[in-house]
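ok here's the first one, seq then struct tokens
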Amino acid sequence: MISFSVSQVGTWSDVNRTLGLVKSGKDGPFVFGNKPLRVITFLNPPWVGRRVDSESFHGIDKYEGFLVDLMKGLSKRLNFTIDVEKVYEDALPDAEIKRQFNKGVHLGMVVKSMREMRRKYYDLSPELKEFGYTIFTPRPVKELTGLLAFMTPLSPPMWALFASAMVVVSLFLTLVNQFNPYEWRWLAKRGQVEPSQGGNYNAWNSLWNVFSSTVGQGAENQPMSFGGRIIIGTWWFFVLVVMASYTANLAAFLTVKPVNPIRSMEDLPRQNKLEYGFIRSYAIRRLFETADSFPLRDMWEKISANPDWLVGSNEEGLKRAAKGKYAFITFSGVRFRQIKELCEVEMVGQPFYKYHVGFPIPIGSPHKDRIAYEIETMRQVGVVEELSNRWLEVDRGRCKESDRKKDNGVLKMENLLGLFVILGAISALGMAVCVIEVIVFKLKKMDDENIEEKQDDNNIEDVSEVVEERDGAVEEREDGVVEEREMEEGGFEEELEENVFEEDSEDGVQEEAVVIEEVELNDIQSVQDSA
């Protein structure tokens, strides 16, 4: 009787439809038996890069990156060592990888897109990461250059409305000065101020005072009327808000990064400021050549008419994009490379023409199935994701992408429309107050004129009474003289004496009359002066 036993020597993967060997015992050797695997690679951070302190290490430990950590993990699981056969400085072509495999190299520690065209050169490991093609454009810079660059924070309609408001307010102040009796013009006419001050708020000086307030210098002379002060005070508040908004927006233009006008692939054929292209040997070229719909078809028509839009390498394309006027289409994984031009470009849009990447394995290699099984196992337990987060999803000292804003930050008319409404409403109130002041002044002037007329009539009556009193006194004196003449009758001596006396009396009466007339004139003059 024949006895036999069954033991597990391998596993079947339904995912990859491959057979993989397992350990022959608890601590037994793996399938590779601690044998070295010869690999080739080229420096392509963050997949493979030379460590800063690489001189202190040997072999695989001199390098770091996603593929380096992945190979170290596989070596521990499959019990093999890594022998770095050759390190290239430039990208490895498919033909060179096949040539090295024919020389006995076991693996290629490089990432390659999993395209069908590569199958004739080598096999590929299971997918490690998904990528796609994307667009790298010049990083937009919001520069305030040009003769009118200072006007950028406000939109042109906003500037026009602001200038119109300045003229209207100046016109209001001119009208107030022209018709308001409490303003400089009328004060100068009444002699209450110097004649030269009467033009403080004529048309030209009103505009000058408004402009002086706008630039923070203040008006040279303030309005004297209450209505004028309401208008100029409202203008000051208006200028305060507008200038504060302008200053804040100007600072934002100098600090906030602008918005890229290219947001997706569809934007490229619709504009004519940027040239665009890709690496002439990339597989994406066939996608453009065979496209029959927008936007790829329209883009290829321009590219085919301008062959110089195509480049030879990622470095050339990124440098050209960094200089401006060029949009470079390449695989999104290029952003992981430490290329200084990445600081001058910006990746826009969602990846398209997506593909997966893996590392090359020789066709018919006995190690392929076991490596594929272990990579699937590492994916399931989260090792591959952890490596991706560590090496592919972090900044690693490169430039960060700019924050996107929905608008360019220019203040438009609708942003400050309420402020213009307030200015117009309160200015109209100031004009209404001006009208009220004119009416009040005219009523007050009429009252003053009536009072003056009454005072003049009273003064005339007083003067008439004084004159009548003086006339009565003169008549009484004249009557006394006549009576004295009638009573004196007698002799010659007496007549002579009377004649002498009469002449003296007449002289006295005349002197008294002159004195009376002088007194009357002085009284009349004093009454007029008091009036």
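and now the second one, same deal
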Amino acid sequence: MPNNWIEFLPLAALAFLSSCSAAKVEYDATAIVIDGQRKIINAGAIHYPRSTEEYDFSGNLNFIKFFQLIQEAGLYAILRITLDLIGFPMWLHNTPGIQLRNDNEIYKREMEIFTTNIVDMVIRAKLFAPQGGPIILAQIENEYGNIMEGYGEAGKNCIQRCAQMAVAQNVGVPWFMCQQADAPQSMINTCNGFYCDQFTANNPKSPKMWTENWTGWFKLWGGKDPHRAAEEPAFAVARFFHQGGILNNYYMYHGGTNFGRTAGGNLNQHKYGHLKQLHAALRVGEKALTTGTVTTKNYGKDVDLTMYANNTTGERSCFLSNVNGQNDVDVDLDQDGKYFVPAWSVGIIQNCNKEIYNSAKLSSQTSVMIRNLNYKDETEDANGDANEGDADVPETEEQAPKLNWTWAPEAMRDTLHGKGRFRATVLDQKEATLDISDYLWYMTSSNESKFRGMGKGHVWVNGYSIGRYWPSQIADANGCSDTCDYRGSYKDNRCRTNCGNPSQRWYHIPRSFLNSNGANTLILFEEIGGNTTDISFQIVTVGAICGFAYECSTLELSCQGGRTIADIQFASFGDPQGSCGSYKAGSFQATTSLAAVEKAFVGKPSCSIDVSEATFGLRNLGVTKKLAVEAVCG
């Protein structure tokens, strides 16, 4: 019987290993303790089977190699062995007498066989921390508490047995369960969701852990694109640590693309570029956060200051939060200074007297992607929203080649590898299948995707599935806006985009799926009929890069692929308006803006600039100043 019936969710923690020697992993209510070092942890979830070939080992299944790469990169890791109905194979469903995720002897036996097999593989590879490996935590089950009520007493027995089985593995690192309020005391119960600042562990000795930080939400066929501005999850994470959080894991961080028949990850993930300043600010106060006493003072209904103070060393770290979704506030901390706190934001104040971060004042780079080799150029912003026929983008003289299609009925061998007998013409679907099947296979070759004109089906490139297509599913034309007010608790019906368009037209083909020399084979399995003449391929490259930063921070810009910054199209330190591709000067700006940015960036593959009055010579005007830059990579 196959034994890969449960989904694995390894996570690469954004905390560095000190060495490859054996490590003792412990915890208490205020820290994860690794070899006596008290830590807070930020992590990113990776579905390694849905990553591309850089992580695709032996048919996407070699998770041992994946963890070894994590160790080589100097990272900690968390092993999540999740028992979920979505991951159970058909043979398990069809096992006589089985009741899945229940107090059922057949199910519990199969669960233990599988878990033990995985743990034994990890132990043999010496990957748990006490063996010198990177794995510092392990999970068993996933969100069973969300459905357990329907199982009654049997559900409670099942979760107890699950915990006993996990602990009996003797892996030497703590185990945890997600969304399990009544988790046995041998387990750390943890939180999943958009926010976890109000979560409390069921054991006062357990750390407060956020194992799935949902940084966005799913796109649905026929639905508009959900969007969550980066400032919003930044607020949620800062607020979580403000309220005593110890471990935060972004879900997803990599590998969420909808390859094969697996569901994709959340849309518009916020990655390291948006949140690295938050992580850096948290590391500054790590000792105070994990060893200090905690006091909180309210400054009105929605504003509070929490201080973590180590009375022995004198170290302090403060969080200043404004949870009001509309009103900005000014807060006077007496000898520790005065602070402007925007609505729905959290400030991190080093030593409680110098703000080093605020979640509403993000500094980040945006890359404008350009599609080449098509009948008409199109551009898209960093969120993947297409701007068709943009007047600022000239049509290319180099046109994409016409695709020559062949077709075949459903019943055939080796179709996914481009083999079989084909007729070199495209006929009406009913004629082609002779009413034997409702399905039709199309195949073409190309040296280099957009599925406009097709109905519904599945697509492969060189034998690799890149997912399902359904461009006939059109989002409602109403309810979208060019602006997004992220303030206030996130709801997936807010800040929608892509109204009136197909839910998905463009499909990313990883370079590792393509042949570097010779033709590439595209195969479509069409279910309801379509027109292949509208399908096109384009190469996506970075055109312009933009940066935006607030005063008293650092702006970093970089080009990809060894290219350098060739030109600065726009630069303004003051009150710039607009967005990437349409920046313009505001009511005031430093006259040295362009010259200072050109001096810092031009001719370099990457660089940074201090966003301050000292750099640009613009003196205090009583307002917070900003820097906007648009550059071109050469």
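notes on #2: The radius of gyration is 27 Å. The chain has a mean pLDDT of 82.
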